[in-house]
Amino acid sequence: xxxxxxxxxxxSPIAKGKAGGALAGLHPVDLLAQVLRQVVDRNGIDPGCVxxxxxGCVSQVGEQSATPGRMAWLAAGLPEHVPATTIDRKCGxxxxxxxxxxxGVMAGQQDVVIACGVxxxxxxxxxxxxxxxxxYGAGVTERYAPGLVxxxxxxELVADRWSLTRSELDEYAVRSHRLAGEAAAAGLFDSEIVPxxxxxxxxxxxETIRVGSSVEKLAGLAPSFRSxxxxxxxxxxxxxxxxxxxxxxxxxxxxxxxxxxxAARAHGLRPRARLHAFSQVADDPMLMLAAPIPATRKVxxxxxxxxxxxxxxxxxxxxxxxxxxxxxxxxxxEEKVNxxxxxxxxxxxxxxxxxxLMTTLLATLEERDLTWGLQTMCEAGxxxxxxxxxxx
Length: 392
Fold this sequence. Notes:
Number of strands: 12
Order of helices and strands: EEHEHEHEHHHEEHHEHEHEHHHEE
Helix content: 25-40%
Structural class: alpha+beta
Shape: globular
Strand content: 15-25%
Largest sheet: 10 strands, mixed
Number of helices: 13
């Protein structure tokens, strides 16, 4: 079986996902088009050799409804004969896109694939794909009577299950902003960010990092998911999840150029990492956000590795309890996890986040001269992906 390698990985700066955000004036297709164009141009490849463009996007409705990867490729002026597909594994969509790209290469059916993701949460509101409909049906509602819960309430359940306090959650959120702020100030994001041209001008840096965040400020925020219904259903919950210790609603796009080693050599390109092992798991859909724990165990088992073998971890910060419960359960030291901050500081543009984490993980391994990285992502419905990469 052939090796699948990462030749390049780039992302847009992350913008606030609301009116007035730096990317709110840009159609999501045109946002992704710029990222695709730049990953092609900066590697000097003939875009006509790309076998497929696999795109993660969660809210596939409205401006993101017509296979946005295909539309973005065309908007970038790239060859018409190159196909694209769009997938939805919720928050792990573009991490799954990278996995599918690797599968095609490893199987010998493809040589050059771009895995990417986009989400414009300012223009396509989270949850809008449901169009007011019930996505569960009678069977799921009966099985988990009186029904599944929102991700916010799932985060509350995770915090309760792992005995995480409000102060621990807020302290973790402050850490995310501090580390992201330090990385930005040191120019550590420069190698992974590509500039985006918007109607208002060029956008070059994440606008989501709050360097002045403090536990004292966050302590004043009210819980986001407390309601009479939630209190009645879960009377033991203290309700600790706030806007401050949750990921930010944002706009962004990212792309990962995946090739076979032979194709990279033929194009005169040096691979930056090898895609080493993959896992996808599903867990309790009520807890929903705890699945990165079994996903991590499974991918390590497949790779024949242990946690001690991994140099750096990226665990998506959908809510602070996710990485905290993961680290507590697996006994992973904090200094190896999300060392440039995470989605609490940088934001979580749903369909783009998997490729964004991969981009940051690779850049951080290179900057620190380390070898092994593991990325994992919680996903709606109690699913998770995990991927191990080897810097080469």
